[in-house]
Amino acid sequence: MADPTGLLRDLDRILLSTEQIHARVGELAAQVEADYRGRELTVVALLDGALFFVADLLRRLDLPVRLVSLGASSYHGGTSSSGEVRLNWPAGVHLEGQEVLLLDDIYDTGLTLATLRHRLLAERPASLRTGVLLNERRPRQTEVPLDYCGFEIGDEFVVGYGMDYQGRFRNLPCIGILKP
With 70 as the cut, is the pLDDT of residue 83 above it? Predict the structure, then answer.
């Protein structure tokens, strides 16, 4: 894999290649499209980590899509959850009666997704489904039902394809594990 950024040298190993990610995102898009055929979809995307995943997924959907971007985090610059979710809800966003799909990069502790699902359900959407690119196999603080999942991974801190460590590595086209 070409490394114009020089960031690959900081990886211990590549967990998921660009080709694997793009193929799986295409499969997820087909599932979402089949589930929402004939309806307008409101996608609620958790940024910044899910940016690449959401952009690639939405470009493959042949559906009317409305996008709402939210900022939410429980990591605050570290490699483990702080236990406190910070949520930035944009003014003027109302989801009552809409078909809502919540998308995030990774399901790890469950805290961020659970907090957001609770907030979204308070909006009284017609439906609410949840999708993630990565489902990390680990003990959870809170369980959240997943409707769409790209990959199951082990309990490891990952970077790339939108996910970062202290603001770096988001622009890697693959997903990898940093060197210790």
Answer: no
pTM: 0.90
| φ and ψ of 27, to 5 deg | -65, -40
Question: Which residues pair with residue 46 across a beta bridge?
Answer: 70
Average pLDDT over residues 52-65: 98
Chain-centroid distance of CA 93 in Å reads 20
Q: Is residue 148 a part of any domain in this protein?
A: yes
Domain presence at residue 178: no
What is the domain count for the chain? 1
Task: Confirm if 174 and 160 have CB atoms less than 8 A apart.
Answer: yes
Residue 90 domain-assigned?
yes
CB 68 within 8 A of CB 43: yes
Q: 55 lies in which domain range? A: 18-156
The CATH number of whichever domain residue 88 belongs to comes to 3.40.50.2020
* CA pair distance 57, 24, nearest whole angstrom: 10
Do the Cβ atoms of 127 and 100 come closer than 8 Å?
Answer: yes
Active-site amino acid positions: 108
Q: Does a structural domain hold residue 132?
A: yes
Q: What is the crossing angle of helices 51-59 and 18-36, to 10°?
A: 60
**pLDDT over threshold 80, residue 78:** no
Band (pLDDT 50/70/90 cuts) for residue 146 is very high
* Helices vs strands, H then E, count in the chain: 3, 9
